Amino acid sequence: MKNKQNQFVYYGNINHKDWSIYIAATDKGLCFVGSQKEGINELRAWVDKNKSGATLTEDETKISPYAYQLKEYLDGKRKTFDITVDLNGTIFQETVWNELQNIPYGEIVSYSDLANKIGKPKAVRAVGAANGANPVMIVVPCHRVVAKNGNLTGFRGGLEMKKALLALEKSNEMGE
Protein backbone atom coordinates (compact mmCIF):
# COMPACT_ATOMS: atom_id res chain seq x y z
CA MET A 1 0.00 0.00 0.00
CA LYS A 2 1.34 3.38 -1.00
CA ASN A 3 1.98 5.85 1.76
CA LYS A 4 0.11 9.11 1.10
CA GLN A 5 3.42 10.94 1.59
CA ASN A 6 4.69 9.25 -1.59
CA GLN A 7 1.46 9.68 -3.52
CA PHE A 8 1.19 12.07 -6.43
CA VAL A 9 -1.94 13.82 -7.59
CA TYR A 10 -1.50 14.95 -11.19
CA TYR A 11 -3.62 17.82 -12.43
CA GLY A 12 -4.39 20.01 -15.38
CA ASN A 13 -6.99 22.44 -16.62
CA ILE A 14 -9.55 21.79 -19.32
CA ASN A 15 -10.30 24.98 -21.22
CA HIS A 16 -12.83 23.92 -23.81
CA LYS A 17 -15.51 26.07 -25.39
CA ASP A 18 -17.11 27.92 -22.45
CA TRP A 19 -15.77 25.45 -19.90
CA SER A 20 -12.80 25.84 -17.58
CA ILE A 21 -12.42 22.90 -15.21
CA TYR A 22 -9.49 21.58 -13.19
CA ILE A 23 -9.18 17.82 -13.10
CA ALA A 24 -6.83 15.56 -11.17
CA ALA A 25 -5.80 11.92 -11.21
CA THR A 26 -3.68 9.52 -9.22
CA ASP A 27 -1.95 6.46 -10.63
CA LYS A 28 -5.25 4.61 -9.92
CA GLY A 29 -7.50 6.92 -11.98
CA LEU A 30 -9.41 10.18 -12.13
CA CYS A 31 -9.92 11.45 -8.58
CA PHE A 32 -11.28 14.98 -8.99
CA VAL A 33 -13.33 17.05 -11.42
CA GLY A 34 -13.59 20.68 -10.42
CA SER A 35 -16.36 23.21 -10.65
CA GLN A 36 -16.82 25.38 -13.70
CA LYS A 37 -14.42 28.36 -13.56
CA GLU A 38 -13.68 27.71 -9.86
CA GLY A 39 -9.90 27.60 -10.24
CA ILE A 40 -6.97 25.77 -8.71
CA ASN A 41 -7.85 26.65 -5.10
CA GLU A 42 -10.84 24.30 -5.14
CA LEU A 43 -8.51 21.46 -6.18
CA ARG A 44 -5.87 22.38 -3.59
CA ALA A 45 -8.47 22.44 -0.81
CA TRP A 46 -9.81 19.04 -1.92
CA VAL A 47 -6.30 17.51 -1.99
CA ASP A 48 -5.49 18.97 1.46
CA LYS A 49 -8.67 17.43 2.87
CA ASN A 50 -8.76 14.10 1.02
CA LYS A 51 -5.20 13.31 -0.03
CA SER A 52 -3.28 14.93 2.81
CA GLY A 53 0.45 14.70 2.26
CA ALA A 54 0.14 13.91 -1.45
CA THR A 55 2.21 15.94 -3.88
CA LEU A 56 0.14 18.01 -6.30
CA THR A 57 1.91 18.04 -9.67
CA GLU A 58 0.82 19.62 -12.93
CA ASP A 59 1.09 16.95 -15.62
CA GLU A 60 -0.94 17.28 -18.82
CA THR A 61 0.26 13.88 -20.07
CA LYS A 62 -1.07 12.01 -17.01
CA ILE A 63 -4.49 13.66 -17.23
CA SER A 64 -4.82 13.70 -21.03
CA PRO A 65 -6.96 10.51 -21.34
CA TYR A 66 -9.43 11.95 -18.81
CA ALA A 67 -9.38 15.41 -20.41
CA TYR A 68 -9.99 13.85 -23.84
CA GLN A 69 -13.13 12.01 -22.70
CA LEU A 70 -14.45 15.03 -20.78
CA LYS A 71 -14.00 17.22 -23.88
CA GLU A 72 -15.87 14.62 -25.95
CA TYR A 73 -18.68 14.73 -23.39
CA LEU A 74 -18.76 18.54 -23.48
CA ASP A 75 -18.95 18.33 -27.29
CA GLY A 76 -21.95 15.99 -27.03
CA LYS A 77 -19.98 13.13 -28.60
CA ARG A 78 -19.68 10.95 -25.48
CA LYS A 79 -22.51 9.67 -23.30
CA THR A 80 -20.59 7.23 -21.12
CA PHE A 81 -17.05 7.22 -19.78
CA ASP A 82 -14.66 4.31 -19.92
CA ILE A 83 -11.93 5.67 -17.69
CA THR A 84 -10.90 4.44 -14.27
CA VAL A 85 -11.82 6.53 -11.26
CA ASP A 86 -10.09 6.64 -7.90
CA LEU A 87 -12.95 7.22 -5.47
CA ASN A 88 -12.38 7.13 -1.74
CA GLY A 89 -15.26 7.71 0.60
CA THR A 90 -17.26 5.98 3.25
CA ILE A 91 -19.01 2.73 2.34
CA PHE A 92 -22.28 4.68 2.15
CA GLN A 93 -20.79 7.39 -0.10
CA GLU A 94 -19.26 4.81 -2.42
CA THR A 95 -22.61 2.98 -2.61
CA VAL A 96 -24.30 6.23 -3.68
CA TRP A 97 -21.51 7.07 -6.15
CA ASN A 98 -21.75 3.61 -7.70
CA GLU A 99 -25.52 3.99 -8.11
CA LEU A 100 -25.08 7.43 -9.70
CA GLN A 101 -23.16 5.73 -12.50
CA ASN A 102 -26.30 3.75 -13.38
CA ILE A 103 -28.32 6.88 -14.24
CA PRO A 104 -28.48 7.00 -18.05
CA TYR A 105 -27.30 10.01 -20.02
CA GLY A 106 -30.06 12.57 -20.42
CA GLU A 107 -32.19 11.18 -17.58
CA ILE A 108 -32.79 12.50 -14.09
CA VAL A 109 -33.78 10.87 -10.82
CA SER A 110 -34.77 12.32 -7.46
CA TYR A 111 -32.79 12.01 -4.26
CA SER A 112 -35.57 9.79 -2.89
CA ASP A 113 -35.39 7.58 -6.03
CA LEU A 114 -31.67 7.21 -5.40
CA ALA A 115 -32.23 6.40 -1.70
CA ASN A 116 -34.73 3.72 -2.73
CA LYS A 117 -32.34 2.25 -5.32
CA ILE A 118 -29.66 1.70 -2.68
CA GLY A 119 -32.18 0.17 -0.28
CA LYS A 120 -32.15 3.09 2.18
CA PRO A 121 -35.47 4.88 1.52
CA LYS A 122 -35.24 7.00 4.69
CA ALA A 123 -31.70 8.19 3.93
CA VAL A 124 -32.67 10.93 1.47
CA ARG A 125 -30.64 13.65 3.22
CA ALA A 126 -27.63 11.35 3.58
CA VAL A 127 -27.90 10.54 -0.13
CA GLY A 128 -27.90 14.28 -0.83
CA ALA A 129 -24.79 14.74 1.32
CA ALA A 130 -23.01 11.85 -0.40
CA ASN A 131 -24.01 13.31 -3.76
CA GLY A 132 -22.51 16.65 -2.75
CA ALA A 133 -19.28 14.97 -1.65
CA ASN A 134 -18.78 13.30 -5.05
CA PRO A 135 -15.29 14.38 -6.13
CA VAL A 136 -15.65 13.25 -9.75
CA MET A 137 -18.71 15.13 -10.96
CA ILE A 138 -19.75 14.73 -14.60
CA VAL A 139 -18.02 11.32 -14.83
CA VAL A 140 -19.99 10.17 -11.78
CA PRO A 141 -23.12 12.07 -12.84
CA CYS A 142 -24.45 13.65 -9.66
CA HIS A 143 -25.87 16.49 -11.79
CA ARG A 144 -28.63 14.06 -12.87
CA VAL A 145 -30.18 14.08 -9.38
CA VAL A 146 -32.92 16.61 -8.62
CA ALA A 147 -35.50 17.28 -5.92
CA LYS A 148 -38.62 15.11 -5.84
CA ASN A 149 -40.64 18.00 -7.33
CA GLY A 150 -38.15 18.27 -10.23
CA ASN A 151 -36.43 21.43 -8.98
CA LEU A 152 -32.68 21.74 -9.29
CA THR A 153 -31.09 21.70 -5.86
CA GLY A 154 -27.58 21.51 -4.44
CA PHE A 155 -24.60 20.88 -6.68
CA ARG A 156 -20.94 21.33 -5.75
CA GLY A 157 -20.36 23.06 -9.09
CA GLY A 158 -23.28 25.46 -8.55
CA LEU A 159 -26.76 25.42 -10.02
CA GLU A 160 -25.66 27.22 -13.23
CA MET A 161 -23.20 24.40 -13.97
CA LYS A 162 -25.84 21.76 -13.16
CA LYS A 163 -28.32 23.51 -15.46
CA ALA A 164 -25.72 23.68 -18.26
CA LEU A 165 -24.85 19.97 -17.96
CA LEU A 166 -28.51 18.92 -18.01
CA ALA A 167 -29.18 21.21 -20.99
CA LEU A 168 -26.18 19.75 -22.83
CA GLU A 169 -27.49 16.23 -22.31
CA LYS A 170 -31.06 17.17 -23.22
CA SER A 171 -30.02 18.86 -26.47
CA ASN A 172 -27.91 15.86 -27.48
CA GLU A 173 -30.75 13.44 -26.71
CA MET A 174 -33.01 15.41 -29.05
CA GLY A 175 -30.37 15.33 -31.77
CA GLU A 176 -30.66 11.54 -32.11
UniProtKB/TrEMBL annotation:
Its main location: cytoplasm. It holds the Pfam family DNA_binding_1. It comes from the Bacteria. GO terms for molecular function: methylated-DNA-[protein]-cysteine S-methyltransferase activity. Keywords: Cytoplasm, DNA damage, DNA repair, Methyltransferase, Transferase. The keyword Transmembrane does not apply. It is an enzyme of class 2 (transferase). Residues 9-87 form the Methylguanine DNA methyltransferase ribonuclease-like domain. One of its GO terms (biological process) is DNA alkylation repair. It catalyses: a 4-O-methyl-thymidine in DNA + L-cysteinyl-[protein] = a thymidine in DNA + S-methyl-L-cysteinyl-[protein]; a 6-O-methyl-2'-deoxyguanosine in DNA + L-cysteinyl-[protein] = S-methyl-L-cysteinyl-[protein] + a 2'-deoxyguanosine in DNA. Residues 92-170 form the Methylated-DNA-[protein]-cysteine S-methyltransferase DNA binding domain. Gene3D superfamilies: Methylated DNA-protein cysteine methyltransferase domain, Winged helix-like DNA-binding domain superfamily/Winged helix DNA-binding domain. InterPro entries: MethylDNA_cys_MeTrfase_AS, MethylDNA_cys_MeTrfase_DNA-bd, MethylDNA_cys_MeTrfase_DNAb, MethylG_MeTrfase_N, MGMT, MGMT_N_sf, WH-like_DNA-bd_sf. CDD domains: ATase. Involved in the cellular defense against the biological effects of O6-methylguanine (O6-MeG) and O4-methylthymine (O4-MeT) in DNA. Repairs the methylated nucleobase in DNA by stoichiometrically transferring the methyl group to a cysteine residue in the enzyme. This is a suicide reaction: the enzyme is irreversibly inactivated. This enzyme catalyzes only one turnover and therefore is not strictly catalytic. According to one definition, an enzyme is a biocatalyst that acts repeatedly and over many reaction cycles. Belongs to the MGMT family. This is Methylated-DNA--protein-cysteine methyltransferase.
